[in-house]
Amino acid sequence: MKDTHKHSDEISDLGEFGLIRHLTRDLKIKNKSTCRGIGDDAAVLNFEGSRVVISSDLLAEGVHFNLVYTPLKHLGYKAAVVNFSDIYAMNAQPRQLLVSLAISRKFTVSMIDSLFSGIRLACEQYGVDLVGGDTTSSYTGLTISCTAVGEAADEELVYRNGAGKTDLICVSGDLGGAYMGLQLLERERKLFEKEREIQPALEGYDYVLERQLKPEARRDITALFRELGIQPTAMIDISDGLSSELIHICQNSDKGCRIFSDKIPVHPETERVAREFGMEPLIAALNGGEDYELLFTLPVKMFEKIGNRQEVSIIGHMVDVAEDLKMITAQGEAITLEAQGWNALR
Amino acid sequence: MKDTHKHSDEISDLGEFGLIRHLTRDLKIKNKSTCRGIGDDAAVLNFEGSRVVISSDLLAEGVHFNLVYTPLKHLGYKAAVVNFSDIYAMNAQPRQLLVSLAISRKFTVSMIDSLFSGIRLACEQYGVDLVGGDTTSSYTGLTISCTAVGEAADEELVYRNGAGKTDLICVSGDLGGAYMGLQLLERERKLFEKEREIQPALEGYDYVLERQLKPEARRDITALFRELGIQPTAMIDISDGLSSELIHICQNSDKGCRIFSDKIPVHPETERVAREFGMEPLIAALNGGEDYELLFTLPVKMFEKIGNRQEVSIIGHMVDVAEDLKMITAQGEAITLEAQGWNALR
User: d(Cα B343, Cα B240) in Å, to the nearest integer?
Assistant: First the structure.
């Protein structure tokens, strides 16, 4: 289908099968668990002795992304990576991805090419095979639905419900950055809509913008677990804010928690941007979404293995369920945690 | 979450997690391959020695369905069943389903309940576990993305590319009914939009309406294969019309074909409705979509096993690729097959 490059940029001229052939040309299979990829009624996978881990996500234009400030390649990359993040949150390795798109008439072949180049780059970076999906039209906007398939040995899998009463609560990377990046992009969009001459002032905000526009999944953390011989007792990825995710672990594990506000990792740039918006950085960390860091619990005896790792912060510990879910502030005040995370249905 | 019944009918009052809990209450796992269903970052499956078969589909309001004449329960049932059909088309058994929804503000909890009751009924009927998905808002309309996971022994799997040069071409059930059902519903919708007093005249059209609104996947045909010890050489499900699907098999198998117009199965009601619309019934069978019958090829020696089965029609045979893809009419004329099936991107 190399000649499709010479065709017009209208999706309707390619047709569904033409577009799929165009988007999936030269795909190379990387994993031995992928027996057959795109091109039949279904993909065929083989996991032999391993467990299969599977997760789906749906991103809708105007709700999860705004194309005014989201480059399509970044969007494709992010759509894939947030699904891989769910697989890593099970302590599994992503192996395959299925991508379904609903595309309105405003999109051209080159636009969908950009989107797909991001999806393909993410698959490349994370060693994942693109094995299926669906492409169709929509009346309005773009909808992206991804399903990621991963693999793990049964004994490696980590659920949300295994946290023990005195376990350490750990988080990778830092929090609140993606949320502040979004605030920044929204501010510039609104200014631009008022006055079209204004150029977006996005210099000096690289970190929070990258956190929002091109997040990564913490594959390195699950690799670290293997390297250090660590098996977390519970794990979840932080897509809706620390508070909401920690509540999930506590509820599923039937435990309470104590976290310490001064232990919650926040990047200096996140802090600076939050202040600029007149916002408490801690609020962005607790309730801002889309950080895609890993939140996990470990038995106390693992402290010496993980305590000095730069990429992991110990932010508190689990307690008995009767002791409730609380954050202790620097002033020693105990605040009950509430799920004020991003609500996709608000 | 039984108390959610007492809540208001506004989705925003339940929130995303509340809605998911509400929709997935009392789900019972049916398959031993389902280790963990809904409630973690991902579902966990175990297929031991079997192959995993996986397929995704996306349905968009206004493109794939019109809620003016599609009951939500039927829509949910159909959304699930069309995915199961892809799995049967591999000669595999569907085991798990993931459903992602994007829902606009016009939908209430009871509407989504109706949709889900159809999805759950389909899972019930076909012995499939609902193990995951995503629920989010959309700016306009409803988008349903389903991923079905199936299981088969490696040697049972049937691809599109195995048809031999003299193989019989077989089709289950009858064709064109779903397309005529759609024409009928569209006609009544247009009349209704012109004059709101008019009641839709849908009596006496039960068969074609059911073909459109509540299709079934041909699980019975794959069961028949096992019963008769038959292994098809190629198979595909007919979602875009016989012509388009047969072209897929021929291209993938590098073969040609001869089919005979008077062997193509058309239901008497489909024929009657087509005539009513001034349309050749054969055109509906060749190019109408959404029949979800199975098109498959068998070695000639299988003729005595399948030749007298009511549920299967032998419509022709494969030939060498040099002999092209042709349909022979009752008058003995040879017409080259073209893919005029439904184009999801038109």
Answer: 8
What distance, in Å, lies between the first and last C-alpha atoms of chain A?
Answer: 43
Return d(Cα A286, Cα A203) in angstroms, integer.
Answer: 26
Residue B57 near chain A (CB below 8 Å): yes
Q: Is A344:A241 a contact under the CB 8 Å cutoff?
A: no
B128 contacts B97 by C-beta, under 8 angstroms: yes
Q: In chain A, what are the domains? A: 2-156 (3.30.1330.10), 168-336 (3.90.650.10)
User: CA–CA separation, B327 vs B333, rounded Å?
Assistant: 8
Among candidates A42, A41, A19, which has minimal Cα distance to A102? A19
- The pLDDT of residue B3 is 41
Strand locations in chain B (E): 34-36, 43-45, 51-60, 93-103, 129-137, 143-152, 168-172, 234-238, 255-260, 293-298, 312-320, 325-328, 334-336
- Chain A contact set for B159 (CB, 8 A): 36, 40
CB pairs under 8 A between A and B: 238
CB contact under 8 A, B86 and A45: no
Q: Check CB contact under 8 Å for B135 and A345.
A: yes
- Rounded-to-5 percentages of helix, strand, coil across chain A: 40, 25, 35
pLDDT at position A140 is: 82
- Judged by phi (left if over 0) then psi (alpha if -120 to 50, else beta), residue B80 lies in alpha
* Nearest Cα residue in chain B from A19: B345
Nearest residue to A6 via CA among A109, A136, A118: A109
Q: What percentage of chain A has pLDDT greater than the value 70? A: 96
Q: Do B49 and A51 touch (CB under 8 A)?
A: no
**What does pLDDT average to over chain A?**
90
ipTM, two decimals: 0.90
**How is residue B290 annotated by DSSP?**
-
Kindly report the pTM of this predicted structure.
0.91
Decide: residue A166, CB within 10 A, 0-12 exposed, 13-18 middle, 19+ buried. Answer: middle
Q: Provide Rg for chain A, Cα atoms.
A: 21
CA-CA distance, A202 to A188, in Å (whole number)? Answer: 8
B55 touches chain A (CB under 8 A): yes
Closest chain B C-alpha to A38 CA, distance in angstroms: 10
- Asked if residue B345 has pLDDT above 60, the reply is no
Asked if B145's CB is within 8 angstroms of A56's CB, the reply is yes
C-beta atoms of B52 and A41 within 8 A? no
CB contact (8 A) between residue B46 and residue A154:
yes
Tell me the nearest-neighbour CA distance from B299 into chain A, angstroms: 21
Q: Find chain A residues with C-beta within 8 A of B339's C-beta.
A: 17
